[in-house]
Amino acid sequence: MYNGKVKRVEMIRELRSTHALQAAEQQLLDDEKQATMLLQQQQQSQQLKVIENGMFSLIPIVYTKVTSLGVVEASMSGVRQ
Q1: How far apart are CA 36 and CA 29, in angstroms?
Q2: What is the number of domains present in the chain?
Q3: What is the C-alpha R_g of the chain?
Q4: pTM of the predicted structure, to 2 decimals
Q5: Is the pLDDT assigned to residue 80 strictly greater than 50?
């Protein structure tokens, strides 16, 4: 009877230590996942800035002016040739 009790206590200790190790490993995985997501967000933000800056340089700006005779003249700037 005493031997059975000792075995149960040993099993309980083993389960607790295994559970603690699993929790620590899971925490490490969660931390890695969070760090990866943060890096991905930073990279996407930087890519968006590059795209926005590139797109603005491709958009032509059209200036119009009305002459004294009522004629509309248009000129474009920002166009790459």
Answers
A1: 10
A2: 1
A3: 34
A4: 0.50
A5: no
Q: What pLDDT shows up at residue 81?
A: 43
Residue holding tokens 């943060």?
38
DSSP assignment of 6-59 equals HHHHHHHHHHHHHHHHHHHHHHHHHHHHHHHHHHHHHHHHHHHHHHHHHHHHHS
Among candidate residues 17, 19, 12, 15, the one with its CA nearest the CA of residue 4: 12
**Which range of residues forms the domain containing residue 21?**
2-77
Neighbours of 23 (CB within 10 A): 10
As a whole number of angstroms, the distance between CA 23 and CA 13 comes to 15
Q: Are 75 and 62 in contact (CB under 8 A)?
A: yes
Give the contacts of 63 (CB within 8 A, at least 6 positions apart): 74, 75, 76, 77
